[in-house]
Amino acid sequence: MTTNSGIQTQIPKLLGPNYYHWHIQMRVLLESHELWTIVEEGYTDLPANASESDQNIQREKIKKDRKALHIMFQAVSETIFERVATCKTSKEAWEILHKAYRGENRVKMVRLQTLRCEFDALKMKDSESIEDYINRMAVIVNQLRLNEERVEEQRVVEKILRSLTRKYESVVVAIEESKDLNSISTEELQGILQSHELRLKQYDDVSTEQAFQIQSDQQDRTRQSRSEYSGRGRGKGRGKFNNNSIRCFNCQKLGHVARFCNKRSEDDKSNAALMHTDEQEGDNDDTMFMIFNVEEVIKGDCWYLDSGCSNHMTGDKSLFITLDGSERREVRTGDDKRLEVLGCGDVLIKVKGIERRVPNVFYVEGLKHNLLSIGQLI
Questions:
Q1: Same domain, residue pair 123 and 80
Q2: Do 246 and 372 share a domain, yes or no?
Q3: CA distance linking residue 15 with residue 19, whole number of Å
Q4: Residue pair 349/314 in contact by the 8 Å Cβ criterion
Q5: Which is deepest, 41, 82, 180, 291, by most CB within 10 Å?
Q6: Which of 178-182, 264-268, 331-335 has the lowest mean pLDDT?
Q7: 275 with 334: CB under 8 angstroms?
C-alpha cells in the first residue's frame, strides 16, 4: 500500500491471537489516511430532500468508508474474513472484530482481573536484564490500559522499584532518596538502572578473571606438590594390600612387601629393584625412578606394591577398563632412560578372587612391570 507521500506501507494481518498489536497498528494506519473518523463515527443516510452540499459531503464520507473497509478486508486472514464479509460499513466491521477478540463486559472484567494479578505478581528474574524486565512489564501495562484500566506512570515506577532483584537494592534506595517518584518517567528510570547494571557487569567480569587466576594458581601448586612428592620417594599409604599375587621387590618372593621383608638389610638396599635419585633444582619433569638389576619373567597379573614410584603404572594396555589417551607426559628411570606416558585410566586386579578397581594408573610404553604406589592406594 502506497501513501500520498510515496511511502510504501505494509498492512498488518489479523490472525486472531495478535489482535492486541493489530488493532493498534490498524488505528494508526487509518489515521494516517484520514479514515479513522469514519470508522469510529460512521455515517447516516440523508433524507430525500437533502441539499446538494450535504449530498456532496455524504458522497465523500461513503468514499472514505469504502476505502477504510477495503483496507480492513485486506488486513484479516481468510478465516476471519468470513466474519466481516457481509458488513456494509467499516464501522460495522470494526465493531464485530472488537467484540470477537476484545470480548463483552463480562469477558473484559475477567481479563482485567487476570492482568491485575499478573501485574501484582510481576518480579524481576535473577538472569534477566533491566531492559527485558521493563519490556515484559510494558506488555502487561499496555494491555491493562487498552482494557480501560487506569494505570498511572507513578504506579508503574513504584512497581519496578519494588520488584527488582537484591543486587539493585542500593540504587533503589538512592533513587527513592534523590528523585521525586511523581515526576520520574519509566524511560528515565530505565536509563538510571541500566547504567548501574553496566557497572555491576564490569565488576562481575573482574571477579571472573580473578577466579580463573586463583584456579590456575591452585593447579600450579598441585603440580608442584606432585613433583615434590615424586622426589621424596615412597609415600605412606592409608590402605594395605595382603595378597599372594603381590611380589616383594627386595627378595622377589610373593605375599609381602619390601617394608616387611625379613631379609632386608643395609647391604641389600644397594641391590634393591628400585632406586631413587635426589631432587635436582629447577627440574619440573614428572619423574618415577626405577631400575631392575636382574632378568626375570614376570606374570601379567603380578604387581609390585610399594615400588617407590609416585603413581601406579603399567605397560600392559589390555589391563585397562578405561583409558584417557589425552594424558601425555614423560617419565625418567633411574638409569636415565626416558619413557612416554600414553594415557591414564582404571584397571582391575584380583584380590583373593575378588576384583578390585585401581584408579589413575599410567599406561607407560615400554614398561615391563606392573607397579603400585602404596602411597596412592586407599
A1: no
A2: yes
A3: 7
A4: no
A5: 291
A6: 264-268
A7: yes
